[in-house]
Amino acid sequence: MTSSAFLEQALNWQSLQPELTLNQLSPEKVGFWDLQPNAAQALSLFLAHPKRSLFILKIDEAAEYQALLSQFITEIRPTPDAIFGVNYQVEQGDSFSFPQVYVEPAQDLTDNFASQGEVITALNCDQFQLFGKVRQHPSSQDILLSKGLVHQANGGVLILSAACLLNQFDLWQRLKHLLQTQTFDWQSAHPFKALPCDIPSMSLDLKVIILGNRTEIATLGELEEALYQFADYAEIESYYSIAEMENQQTWANYVLCQAAELALDLDSGALNKIYQLLVRESEDRLLIDISPLTIREMLLNAATLSQKQTLTADDFEAVFQQKRQQHGFCGSEPMPIFSTSKFMWKLMVKLLARLMAYR
Question: Which residues are in the Lon protease AAA domain (predicted)?
């Protein structure tokens, strides 16, 4: 083919846009964890294992995924029938004697340290919220035991953040001992002040999941070199590969389910436009962002601007153009779907290599 023929077949920017290949839109329900098979399997094995008590989950934004994780654990984990924990009985002291504390297995959920294997999330907590505390009345000297998150989640799962443990590293040291021994020992909040009386320890049946980004988890691993000798690990993937047609269909159903939860409808053109906007961000037509927060924001922005329940490609394009104007990109020519940053970088590397070769 001659060079003139190539010029005659020059492509405009619209023809270079990525397109989904969808035969038909099926009603199959697809959730976030269907796009995370590796993490889902690792969590399932961890929850079923009788001896594993700590799981490290790499996640970009803990607050965004904590509800999804809690719901997933609740769905795949059978609801325990047993009652976990103990009942502490306190015999208060007087002027001539110290208080006495007795412990017995919990028989009912009304017992003061009883639990039923809940899934509890606490991304920010202090030592008293996490481990409970011993309070003593300043006048009568009566003591009161208050349970913490580890007691409330006894028999279940406690979800914490790596950032919280790094900011209060003494929490991690105590939590590690608790998980390795599955025993809770009462400690005084003041390092130089003893407990007002002896308080019996209690057994725990607790699993802990720690959420953190790559930097936070790496820091925790450096501070605790033996971390992965007793902890399992998995990652939440930020991007989903749609190289296969089956994966494209799965992703499309996932977006449709997200829209249905917001009482919105999408046509195939709208799905294709969402895909193109996500490719614009990732700069890779085969890898796209699957953050639920990102998808929902795109859907809600289009619904708010258009004031419609059934959304089309034009509605998402209108949101994109509105944001361009809002951010000051007011040129009349349409912006190409791919960023030129990677191309310019590669070009600069090639030019530098040639200059070095001439020298």
Answer: 118-227
